[in-house]
Specification:
This is Transcription elongation factor GreA. The chain is α/β, with parallel strands linked by helices. The chain contains 3 helices and 7 strands, in the order βααββββαββ.
């Protein structure tokens, strides 16, 4: 069985989402389907088709979460320290071209969200950063050509 590395916070979020989908979303969509059925002809009932589509999404996400959650390997980052980039690290990088500074946290694939400042350990950026130290420069392949970044800071809290 494939194990997925994840932080404890990431696992808690997935478990909360699964609980929410099963206890609130699933019953709500079942009620919506039953209500839409009462409106008559199902072939032209937009509410019914929308509810069925929503049900399909919910059931798919539940199935996905039920397969991922038992396969999670929680990595305890509370014991990590140092200036070397590893799983769970917050890494501040500086784009050598634009001088723009960004901070990312390296997390498991199922908890990554670039909008929230976290990148998957399997992403090109994380792969380039892993094992490097403050002051190192990394080159990351990108659609518009490779980008160079300098590692400015590494922290684990």
């Amino acid at each position: 069985m494939q194990k997925f590395p994840m932080t404890a916070e990431g696992l808690a979020k997935l478990e909360d989402e699964l609980r929410h989908l099963k206890s609130e979303e699933r019953p709500a969509v079942i009620r919506a389907i039953a209500e839409a059925r009462e409106h008559g002809d199902l072939s032209e009932n937009a509410e019914y088709h929308a509810a069925r589509e929503r049900q399909s999404f919910i059931e798919g996400r539940i199935a996905e979460l039920e397969s991922v959650v038992p396969s999670v390997e929680v990595i305890d980052i509370s014991k990590l320290a140092g200036d070397q980039v590893r799983f769970g690290a917050y890494v501040t990088i500086i784009d050598e071209e634009s001088e723009e500074e960004k901070t990312y946290r390296i997390v498991g694939a199922h908890e990554a969200d670039t909008k929230q400042g976290s990148v998957s350990i399997s992403s090109p950026l994380a792969k380039a950063l892993l094992g490097k130290k403050v002051g190192d420069t990394v080159e990351v392949p990108a659609p518009g050509g490779a980008r160079a970044y300098e590692i400015a800071k590494v922290r684990f809290n």
